[in-house]
Amino acid sequence: MKFRFCAAAALVAPIAFAQPALAAPGDPVKVSPELTIDPIIDARLRYESVDTPTLDADAVTLRIRAGAELKHKSGLSLLVEGEGTLGIVSEYNAFPFVITDSQRRPGFAAVPDPMNVELNRLQLQYKGKAATITVGRQRINLDDQRWVGAVGWRQNEQTYDAARAELKFGKVSFDATYAIDQRTIWGVDGGPRAAFGGNFVFLGAGSKLGPVQVKAFAYMLDYDTAEQVGALATVMADTQTYGLRAAASFKLSPKVTLGLTASYARQSDWQDNPLDYAVDYIAAEGSLSFGNFGVLAGYEGLGGNGTRALQTPMATLHKFNGWADLFLTTPVNGLQDYYGGALIKFPKVKALPGLNAAVTYHRFESDLGGLHYGNEWDASLGFKLGRYTLLAKYADYDAAAFGADSRKIWLQVELAF
């Protein structure tokens, strides 16, 4: 593996320690008694290294989002935001699929952060006490982003051309979205994968029952023609998913908190999907925090029948099933992920505010056939310096019956206001 720690550190340091020119970044500027304008700047510099038995990659990328939100005291607002990604060190394959583009470099391992300049968000919103209505190209993160998310880990964000209504009546909330486009992380140069059109409906209704937050959800994905989806037909197929999610937090003592989450869903074919099937999703997690230390253990099962498996093509997939990203597409025999981890914070280290470290272990099995896919260790270390957030991450996947050994390292610094 070609580690470029020195080069990455040299690039990160000027951003991490430079003094911002603005005295109060992110503060809205008053245009009139009824109108304000809020500038948006979000920059991220990242080094990513990939090491596999056959291919390696080294990438240094810089992503900048810039825009503004114009707000009226009536609750109306207009947001415009552009996004650009620059490949500073480009020894990586930005497009790990067949496409005619100079950023497709099959001699390197995949790092899905292509250079890109595009409109990221353009939305009109009304926000009141009981309702928020958003229309246009927007960021959508639902619950834990297992089903619908913005894929915020990648440099190019996933957004949606959609109309969304969020309503709240007392302890009951409703969330309804109709989208016609899924704007993917591949950006404007991603060919047929730059965006997937269709008719997409996301519905949710939730309420707080004592210490438990309960939500019912439904996701109906009707993609456009098979010609557009192409080789992704097994993933981007028309599906309907219905389920329940519950989350609770219990204060066991002044310093000890127990957290519990559980979810169940049933996914089946829908609309033009030629397959007749139904598979289950089951997830459960428990966490215990005491002082500056926390532990967690969980299970996530994505059903598979040997021909078709449960898929979540709009999710923020990097959050789930290991940071090495071996299971972005669920194998046809399904996936069972048994995991556990620990987190520790270091509040007494005043020189590095917010210093924290985490480690997680995953054991991956098939849902059908009793296969042991592999194991993975993930670790992270993060802290803040002024307005800057710095992060180091490591993922080590040890393959058994699925994929190949893979090790990944990330070093990044981020500024957002």
What does this protein structure show overall?
This protein is mainly beta. The protein is built from 2 helices and 19 strands. It has helices at 5-17, 226-229, and strands at residues 29-32, 35-51, 56-72, 76-91, 116-127, 131-138, 159-169, 172-183, 195-209, 212-223, 239-253, 256-269, 278-290, 293-302, 335-345, 356-365, 372-385, 388-399, 406-416. It has an 18-stranded antiparallel beta barrel. A hairpin with a 6-residue loop joins strand 18 (388-399) and strand 19. The longest helix has 13 residues, at 5-17.
Key attributes of the depicted protein:
18-stranded antiparallel beta barrel; 2 helices; single chain; 4% helix; disordered N terminus; globular; 56% strand; 417 residues; mainly beta
How can the largest sheet be summarized? 18 strands, antiparallel, barrel
What's the total number of strands? 19
Low-confidence stretches: 1-23
Oligomer: single chain
Q: What does the overall shape look like?
A: globular
* Rg on CA atoms, Å: 22 Å
Average pLDDT for all residues: 92
* Series of secondary-structure elements, N-terminal to C-terminal: HEEEEEEEEEEHEEEEEEEEE
Short description:
By secondary structure, the protein is mainly beta.
Topology of this protein?
Layout: H1 5-17, E1 29-32, E2 35-51, E3 56-72, E4 76-91, E5 116-127, E6 131-138, E7 159-169, E8 172-183, E9 195-209, E10 212-223, H2 226-229, E11 239-253, E12 256-269, E13 278-290, E14 293-302, E15 335-345, E16 356-365, E17 372-385, E18 388-399, E19 406-416
Antiparallel strand pairs: 1-2, 2-3, 2-19, 3-4, 4-5, 5-6, 6-7, 7-8, 8-9, 9-10, 10-11, 11-12, 12-13, 13-14, 14-15, 15-16, 16-17, 17-18, 18-19
